[in-house]
Amino acid sequence: MFRAFVREKPARILITLKDANTSWHLSKIARSTETSYVYVTKFISDLSRKGIVTIESKGKLRIAKLTDKGVEIANLLEEIKKKLE
For a Cys staple, 33 with which of 3, 7, 12, 50, CB 3.0–4.6 Å? Predict the structure, then answer.
């Protein structure tokens, strides 16, 4: 039912990024959400432009972290998912 209201891949990525204890580099996000690296890269770049995610480079890795706005959106998505289950 969740798929009827929300696009699944973007929601999975945002909900995954809620785990602030993990260092989420883009390839790790792709593996964890079963999404292609190319999709994740484009989506995270879009989120960064909108102020939902920050990206910091550590060597070759690009680490994505949710901003306060991003955490709020991820919490709302998770709440919708729970209510529809």
Answer: 12
Task: For residue 19, give Cα distances in angstroms to 3, 13, 15, 32, 36.
Answer: 22, 11, 8, 12, 20
Q: Kindly report, residue by residue over 41-81, the tens digit of the pLDDT.
A: 999 999 999 999 999 998 988 999 999 999 999 999 999 98
Global pTM value = 0.88
- Find the mean pLDDT for residues 22-28: 93
DSSP state string for 39-74: HHHHHHHHHHHTTSEEEEEETTEEEEEE-HHHHHHH
Distance CA 85, CA 72 (A): 20
